[in-house]
Sequence to fold (1379 residues):
Amino acid sequence: MVSRSRFSRPRRHLLRSALLAALAIPALAGAAVAAPRTDLVLGMPVEPPGLDPTSAAPTVIGQVVWQNVFEGLTRVDRDGKVQPQLARSWTVSPDGLTYTFALQAGVKFHNGEAFDANTAKFALDAIRAPGSVNPQKALYAVIADVKAPDSGTLVLTLSKPSGNLLFWLGLPAAVMVEPKSRDGLKSNPVGTGPFRFASWRKGDRVELTRSPDHWDAARKVHLDKVTFRFIGDPQAAAAALRAGDVDAYPLLPAPELYGAFQKDKAFTAVPGLTEMKVVAGMNNAAKPFSDKRVRQALMMAVDRKLLIEGAYSGYGAAIGSHYTPNDPGYKDLTGVYPYDPQKAKALLAEAGYGKGLTFTFKSPQMAYATRTAEILQAMFAEVGVTMTIAPTEFPAKWVQEVMRDRSFDMTVIAHAEPLDIAIYANDPYYFGYKNPAFNTVVATAAEATDEATRLKLYGEAQGILAEDVPALFLFVLPKLSVWKAKLTGFWKNEPVPSNDLTEVRWTE
Amino acid sequence: MRALVLRPRRGFRLDDATLLVGAVLTALLVGVALLSLVWTPEDPARMRILQKLRGPLVSGLLGTDHLGRDLASMLMRGAFNSLTIAFAAVGLGAVLGTLAGVAAAAGPRFDAVLMRVCDALFALPPILSAIMLGALLGPGAPTAIIAIGVFMIPVFARVTRGAAMQIWAREYIMAARMAGKGTVRITLEHVLPNIAGQIIVQVTIQLAMAILTEAGLSFLGLGLPPPAPTWGRMLAESQTYLTQAPHLALAPGLAIAAAVLGLNLLGDGLAARLDPRRRQAS
Amino acid sequence: MLAIRNLSIAFPGPDGPVRVVDGVSLEVARGESLGIVGESGSGKSMLSLATIGLLPRSARTSGEIRLEGRNILGMSERALCGVRGRRIGMIFQEPMTALNPAMTAGQQIAEGIRLHRAAGRAEARAEALRLLDRVRIPDPARRIDSYPHEMSGGQRQRVGIAIALALKPDLLIADEPTTALDVTVQKEILDILDELVADLGLSLILISHDLGVIARSTDRTLVMCRGRAVEQGTTEAVLRQPTAAYTRDLIAALPRRARAGLGAAAPLAAGDAR
Amino acid sequence: MLRHLARRAAGFAVTFLLISVLVFGMMEIVPGDPASAMLGTSATPETLAALRAQMGLDAPAVIRYLRWLGGLLSGDLGVSTTYGVPVGALILERLAVTLPLTGLAVLLAVGIALPLGVTAASRPGGVADGVATLYAQAGIAVPNFWIGLLLIMTVALGLGWLPAGGFPGWGDGPGPALRALLLPALALAIPQSAVLTRVTRASVVEVMNEDFVRTARAKGASVSRALWRHAVPNALVPVITMLGLQISFLIGGAVLVENVFTLPGMGRLAWQALAQRDLIVIQNVVMVFATVVIVVNLGVDLLYTVVDPRLRRRA
Fold:
C-alpha cells in the first residue's frame, strides 16, 4: 500500500506539470503538420427512401447519388448547361430525329461490369419500358427506338424533334445502370461515378468512398470519404454544424437560422436559388376556381414580398409564372397581377362573390407549406375570402387526394423538376387546366432545336400562365447552403436537385 | 396501480394548501380560457409580418410570433383550445375506461375480454397510432380528442379495475349482496363512490398528460389545424427560433407547466379530501 | 435496573398538546417481572416505546427514564441504537405485521445479532437456529428459511421473541404479546416467557389489558388509566386488596370463575360507593 | 405453476393476434398507399399502377394479411418497400438504438427517483420532501422534446461535453455510442423520474408506518438501515408497476426525442415508414413493439415475485 508520504508536496507538483506537458504536445503537433482533410460530412434534412434515382421521384435521392455514384450520357453543370459525360460527343440529324452518340471508352461500373453501347441501350429501354416505374418516364417517351450498332456508338431515333432531350438525358432519372445490379440499386447503388457506395445505416447516414479507377481523369476528385448524415430537425442541424460534427449543410430547412450563419466567420453562407417553385395550385375544373376572374383576384390579394418574409424569412425570389430566374428564357411576370387588395375585391364582386367566398386549402405538412397557408389565409381574409386549412399528411394522403382523386379546392406544393412548365399541358393533371393555345406553344417549343426560338416560345408560355393564373405563382425556394469556411467547390444554385461533390475540397 | 398521492404531512394543513393552490391555478386557467372567447388584447389570427419576432412588452404584452401575431392573445385562445381538447379527451378516456374497469371487476367474463383489449390498446405505440388516426379521420379537434382519449382508456380501465376489485372484496359488499342488490346497483351505490377519489386523481393527472400529448401531436403537425392556436403548436413552432426569440418557447412552455401544476395539485388535494382513510393517517 | 420518574408524554393536538402519559413513575429490579395493565389508550404502549426511545417525532416528553443509571430520554440516536436490542429487547403485539414480509425468520434474527456483534453470517445463522429451538418452534431447521406469511401467528410470535432475545438483553418488554393469539397458543407463549425470565434472569415488563395474563406471570403490577398510574404493588396485593376504584372495576370485569381462579377479591355488592 | 404460465401465454397469443388484426386493418383503411408516396408530384396513373403491381399491393387484403402473418411466425418479416432490405435486419438495427436508449433512460429515471423519493419519504415535510415534490410537479409539466432542446443548447453547444445529436453506431465500441445516448436518455428520464419520484415517495411513506419497520428499529437498526433494508424493499411493488407502464411508453413514445437528437431509433422508423406507407415495416414495427411491451409486462410480474415473497407462491 503506497504510504501518503511518498508523494511529498514538491514531487506531486512535478507529477502534475509533467502530465500537463504530455497533453499539450499532440495538440500543438496536430495543427502545424496535418495535410488538408480528405473526408467530408454533409448534413441533409431528409433521408432518401432509396438510392435508385431511376425508380423513385424524391429529389433527395439525386442529392446523394447523382454525379457522385451515378453518371448519365450527358450532365447538367452548375450553370444549368448540358455537358458531355459518358457520351463523349454527339451529332444530331438535320430533321432533329436521329441522335448519334460517341461513348467514352474503357468505362467500368463499380462492380467491374463494362459500360458500352449495349449497357446504355439497356438503361434507356428500361426507362421507356411499359412496366417501368421511372418517375420522369413521360420526358423520354419521345424516344422511339434505341440502337447500338457497335460498342462505342449509340443511335436514338425520336418520334418528333425535341429541343430538351440532351438536358433530360442529363437528369438523375436518366443515369446509366447495368443489368446485373439493376434490381438491387435501391439499397446498393452501382454506377460509374467518382464515388462508390460504402454503407447505409438506415435513418442515420450514407457513406461513399472514392472510386480508385474512375474513367474521367480530367475531373480529379479531392475527397476520399463522404458521409451524408440525415438530420431532420433544423435546430439539431444548426447544432451539429456549430459543434463541428457536420462540415456542410447544402439545404438548411430553417431560414430563420440562416442569418446567424451568414454573420459567422467560420462558415460560408451565400443564399442561391433552387428549382423548387412554390405554387398554390387551384382546381380549375370546379367552381369557384373554374372562373378565371376569381383566380386573378386571389393573385392580386397576395403580397409576394410579405409572404416570402413570413414564410421564408425573406430568402427566395418572387415569381409571376412557372419558371425560375435561374433558367434561360426567364421573364419576370410578377407585375402582371401585382398586390392590389381593392382591385381584387372589385374583381371578386364582378365574378359574383361580393358577399364572400369560402373554400378549403389542403396543406401538406412541410414548414414552408403550413406557413404559406397561414399567411395566404390572413391575406385572403383581408379581401373577404374565408379559407379553411386542412393539414394533409404528406406524401401519401396528399398525393392520393390531390394528385389522383383531385378532390381539393386549393393546395400548395413546391415543384422541384427543372424546366417543367409543360406540366400545365398534362391532361389529366391536378390543376385541371385545359388551354389548347398554351399546349401548342409548349409543344412547338419542345421540338424547336434552335435555342433562340425555344426560349422565345417558353417566354410566350410564361406569359399565358401569368395572365391565366391556373395556380398562384408565389416564390422560388432559396438554396440556403452553409459550409465551413475552409471548404470550396459547392454549387451556389441548384439547376438540378443535387450535391455534385466532384469539385469540393478543403483549402487548408 | 396505487393512486399517485402526495402523503399529507401534518393532518389538514398540507391537504388544504395543495387543494387551495391547485384550485386557484385551475380557476385562473379556466377563467383566462373563457375570457379569451369574449376578449383578447389582439385578434389571435391577425398577422403583422413586419412586426414579427418582437420581444415581450415591445409589441403587446408578450411580444409577437414568427408571423407577427400577438403572443398573449394566442396564449389565451390557446388555453381555451388546449383545455377543451384535454377535457374532452379525458372525458372520453375516463368514461369508457371507468366503465370497462368497473365491468371487468364486476363480471369475470368481461374481465378477460376487456383486459385483452386493454393490453392490445396498450401495446400500440401511442404516437404512431395517433398519426394513423390523424391520417384516417383527417385533422381537426375530433381527431386530436380521439387520438389522445383512446389511449387513456386502458389507464383508466386498469386503475378502476384494481380499485373496484378491492371494494368487491370488502365485507359490506357481501352484506349488500345479501340484501338482494344486483351487480349494477352495487356498482353504482357502493363501488363507484368508494373509488371516486382514485378516479379523480387519475383525471387530473391525465388532463395534464393530455395537454402534453397535444403538444406532441402538434409537433408532428397533427393537433388542431390553423388558425386556431394551441399551446402545443406554439411550442412546436417556437423550436427553430429558440436562440433568436426564446420568449416564443418560454410563454407556452410556462403556460403548460402552470396548467399541469395546477391540475395535479387540485387532483392531490381532492384525493386527500375525498379519501377518509388518507386524511386521518398520522 | 430500570427507574422511570415522573414521565409525561404529550402530542400536539388541534387545540393544544394532549397528554398521553401523565407523571408515571415505576421501577424494575434485575430479574423482576412487572405487569402493566390498563385499557387500550391508557398510554401503556407509549410508555414502552418511550423506554427504548422510539416515540414518534412529534412527541414531547418530560421526566426521566434511567436504565442502570443512564437517562434514556437525553441519549443521542447513536447511543440509543446501542441500547436497543442489546440492553432492552421488545416483543410486539401484532405477529402478522411485526415481521418483515420480505425476509426469512433466520435473516431477521441474524440481523439483530450482527448489528451489535461482529459475527460472521454462518455464526449468526447457527445462533438463530439455537434461538428458534430455545423458543420451541417445531422443525427449526426448516422454519429458519421460511417467510413470515408461511408461518402461523404463534410461530411468528415465537420468532419475535427469538429476535428480542438475540443479544441476551437485560430487560425484555412485551407489549401485549398474546392479545392477537388464540388462547391455547397464548399459554405456550407465556410459558416460554416465564422459562426465559427464570433461566436467563431477565427483567420483564409485561403489558396487557388482560388481568389473567398479568396475574399469571408477573411479580409486581402497575395499573394505568388514561395516562396515569393509579395503583402499583405486588400482583397478589393488587388483586386481593385493590385500593384504586379503577382496579376494582377491572377485576369486576373478569368472569366469576376466572376471578376465583386468580384468587382475586370478590366484587363489592352493587350500589357501593365508588 | 405451469398451468398458470400456459394460461398467460394463451392470453398473450390472443393479444398478439388482436394487435395484428388491428394494425393491419388500420393500415388498410388509412388513405394513401406506398405507390403514391413513392412517386410524389410526378405520379401518372400508368406508373402508379405499375408500382402497385411491383409492390404486390393488388392482391386482396386477406391474402396479404395471411401471407404476412405466416411470414411473421416463420421469422421472415418480408422486405421493406422503401428501403428494399429485409425488415428484420432494419428493425434489429433500430432496436440496437432504442433498447439501449430506453435502458439508459430507465436507469437514469430510477437513479434519480429512488433516492429522491426515499429520502423525501424518510422525513415527510423536510427539505428533501419539498425538493422532491417540486421536482415531481415540474418534471411532469415539461415535455421531453423541450428538455431535449434545452440540453442540446446548454450541454452540447454551450459546454461541448457531449455530441449534439446523431448516433455513431456500436461499431467503434460502446464509448462514443453511449455518449451519444446520454442526453436523449436524460431528456426521456426527467419526466419519467418525476412521476416515479411521486410513486416512490407515496409508497415508502405508506410502508414506513408498518410495524416491522418499528421492530427493526427496536433491534437497534439505525433510521437509514430500517429505511433502506426494511421499508424500501417492501415499497417497490407500486414503483415497479409504474416502471412497467413507463417502459412501454418510452419505447413507442420516444419518436419526438429521437427526432430532436436525430437518433435512428424505432420511433423514427415507425414515423418514416408511416409517411412512406411502408406497410410491411409498420406492421412489423408494431408487432415488435407489442412483443417488447408484453415481455416487459412479463418481466414486471417476475420482478414482483423477486421483491415480494408473498406473491411467489401464487405466480
Notes: The two ends of chain A are 52 Å apart (CA to CA). The first helix of chain A runs from residue 9 to 33. The interface with chain B takes residues 233-235, 238, 254, 256-257, 260, 306, 309-310, 365, 370-371, 373-375, 377-378, 381, 388-393, 396-397 of chain A (CB under 8 Å).
